[in-house]
Amino acid sequence: WCIEIKSLLFVVEKIEWTKNAHGNAVVKPKFDRRNVCFKKDAFKLMFDVSCKTLVHPYDLGHAHAAGNCFTKEDFIASFSNLNFWPMHHVLNRNYWRVLEKRIRDEAKQFKCVYVTTGAIISKKGKVVAKYINGILVPRAFFKIAFFERYDGQYVLKCYLMSNNGTVQSMSASEVSLLLIEKLTKRYYLTPSVLAKVLPASLKDHIEKL
Questions:
Q1: pLDDT tens for residues 121-176?
Q2: For a Cys staple, 147 with which of 33, 110, 167, 201, CB 3.0–4.6 Å?
Q3: Is residue 56 within a helix (H) or strand (E), and if so which, with residue range?
Q4: Pairing between strand 112-120 and 10-15?
Q5: Residue 73 to residue 128: CA distance in whole angstroms
């Protein structure tokens, strides 16, 4: 969280499915979000926002995905003003939602997955994202999915989506870790961790180093 610009920069979450005796993922409970609203955070870091604060075409989009919550308590807690970005409704309700589900479903085949979700708010080191009613609107969003296999190896997948109403496919949105690091001026995986990633996952990253 960056207090100066009053915006969340990135979050990290762990998705770990419970497996039954046959090694299959246990069905995750579904929670009703119809009567759940975003709550003002206790630390007063964020404005008291609601859907009425934002103007069309933006939604209150989750950073830590509500769909990744395995308990009702975590699900309700995810509706915090500390856990949202203004997200174009076309992206939020379609392509971003599909991406969240894709990573969540892929996690069933792995021991677990660590997901870093963040916002692109700057260009060439300067904040260029616009503000609506005093709330920063990111230019784009990214996800870094770090899948841990049962043999101790890892698979890395990175995605980048623009915060607008354009059509965005999964294949076109998959990018290299290097690109995300360049756009955010931040390193997300240490060399020792990268050494454990399966070679195929790092092909684009290594070619551009």
A1: 887 667 667 888 778 899 999 999 999 999 888 899 999 999 999 999 888 999 99
A2: 110
A3: none
A4: antiparallel
A5: 36
For the chain, give the mean pLDDT: 82
CB atoms within 10 A of CB 155: 17
Q: Compute how many other C-beta atoms are within 10 angstroms of the C-beta atom of residue 147.
A: 23
| Residue 96 phi, psi (nearest 5) | -70, -40
Helices (H), the chain: 72-77, 89-90, 96-106, 170-173, 177-184, 191-194, 203-207
Check residue 199 and report its DSSP letter.
G
pLDDT of amino acid 160: 97
Question: b/e per residue, 28-40, with b = 16+ CB within 10 A?
Answer: eeebeeeeeebee
Q: Which of 188, 131, 191 is nearest to 5 (CA)?
A: 131
DSSP string computed for 64-102:
S-GGG--SHHHHHHT-BGGGEEEEEHHIIIIIHHHHHHH
Q: Please state the rounded mean pLDDT for residues 17-44.
A: 72
Biggest CA-to-CA distance, the chain: 52
What are phi and psi for residue 11, nearest 5 degrees?
-130, 155
Closest by CA to 113, choosing from 149, 88, 87, 74, is 149
